[in-house]
From TrEMBL:
Family stated for the protein in its record: Belongs to the methylenetetrahydrofolate reductase family.
UniProt GO molecular function: methylenetetrahydrofolate reductase [NAD(P)H] activity
GO biological process: methionine metabolic process; tetrahydrofolate interconversion
This protein's name: Methylenetetrahydrofolate reductase
Metabolic or biological pathway, per its Swiss-Prot or TrEMBL entry: One-carbon metabolism; tetrahydrofolate interconversion
Cofactor section: FAD
Keyword Metal-binding assigned: no
Keyword annotations of the record: FAD, Flavoprotein, Oxidoreductase
Length: 327
């Protein structure tokens, strides 16, 4: 990695890939060609897309559940859950969502692909009409996950952003406001903008005030691209634990206790997610929300139904507010 630190720095400053401190004591400035991002509109609701791996029928069924509840779906690429190649997944989703206005956002990570294959996937996605791609360095593979397979990391996220921008694609990028060095995280997002990032998706944080401070600081540093803030969607202890399983990510303990202790944790989880979305969307600089997480341990279908309900309520609340009918 050249343009560190990544988002996986642990709260104590340790590296998520090896023992010892993160080797970057400050944000590395982008020194490649400066890009001028084309203005893009942010989706009001961007929903994490989770389905059974290598199951085209389940991709279609999940897409059908989410259609109409969101403006875009974010297809992740996890170290322990391989799935169809990005361009193929994009093609399946485009066909499945052809009668809706939902846009697929495909994630490309540098963990398993060298530069040549990343360029191939970018051109493939662009050729089928997918113009937004989530560019990430990628989580390191766990020691117990495919130990016989090497990890590539030819590039890091900012250099992948530059490749996507050079092809006139909209490069979406992540940022973790609570990962060390916390004061420098807004500046790191600005450096990604310089590389060509067109839109930012923040990882979830315990309190909306953290996002407000981050957004204000980033704007003062020169950030101009839209920001999407994450909403944690969980309804049981397993789906809550998943959202806290990566460095820098944590949930509000008060909200977590309320949801998990409720007589109806599903309804309570939905209400908590809608409340968080409402608070985040009231922040200056936040233009959309990402419904983040699996939502349920009862399977991808149930999780999709829960996120679809959250998305519908957020959209209905926005419509009511525009009409002057909502508080």
């Amino acid at each position: 990695m050249t343009y560190g630190p990544c988002g996986g720095v642990r709260p104590d400053g340790q590296c998520e890939m090896r023992s010892g401190d993160c080797v970057f004591d400050d944000v590395v400035s982008w020194d490649g060609p400066l890009a001028t991002p084309t203005p893009v509109g942010a989706p009001l609701v961007l929903t994490d897309f989770s389905c059974a791996p290598f199951d085209e029928a389940d991709v279609v069924r999940t897409a059908d559940i989410l259609a109409g509840s969101c403006d875009a779906v974010l297809v992740g690429e996890h170290q322990n859950k391989p799935d169809f190649p990005p361009t193929l997944m994009g093609r399946i989703l485009l066909d499945a969502l052809s009668e809706s206005d939902v846009a697929p956002w495909i994630t490309l990570s540098c963990r398993d692909r060298n530069r040549v294959v990343l360029e191939q996937e970018l051109r493939g996605l662009r050729s089928i009409g997918l113009n937004t791609v989530m560019c990430v360095t990628g989580d390191g593979r766990g020691y117990d996950v495919r130990p016989d397979v090497t990890q590539t990391f030819d590039l890091d996220g900012p250099r992948l952003v530059a490749l996507a921008a050079a092809l006139d694609m909209v490069a979406a990028v992540p940022e973790t406001p609570t990962a060390p060095p916390v004061p420098a995280r807004p500046r790191r997002l600005v450096e990604k903008q310089k590389a060509g990032a067109g839109i930012a998706v923040l990882n979830h944080v315990p309190h909306p005030q953290t996002v407000a401070r981050f957004a204000e600081s980033a704007r003062s540093e020169g950030l101009t691209i839209p920001v999407i803030a994450a909403v944690a969607v969980f309804t049981d202890s397993v789906s809550a634990a998943v959202l806290q399983g990566l460095p820098g990510l944590e949930l509000d303990p008060v909200v977590t206790e309320r949801v998990l202790g409720a007589a109806d944790p599903v309804e309570s989880g939905i209400e908590a997610a809608v409340d968080e979305a409402h608070a985040l969307l009231s922040i200056d600089g936040v233009e959309g929300v990402n419904l983040s997480g699996s939502a349920s341990s009862s399977g991808t279908r149930v999780g999709a139904e829960i996120k679809a309900e959250v998305g519908r309520r957020i959209k209905n609340l926005r419509i009511a507010k525009a009409r002057g009918e909502a508080p």
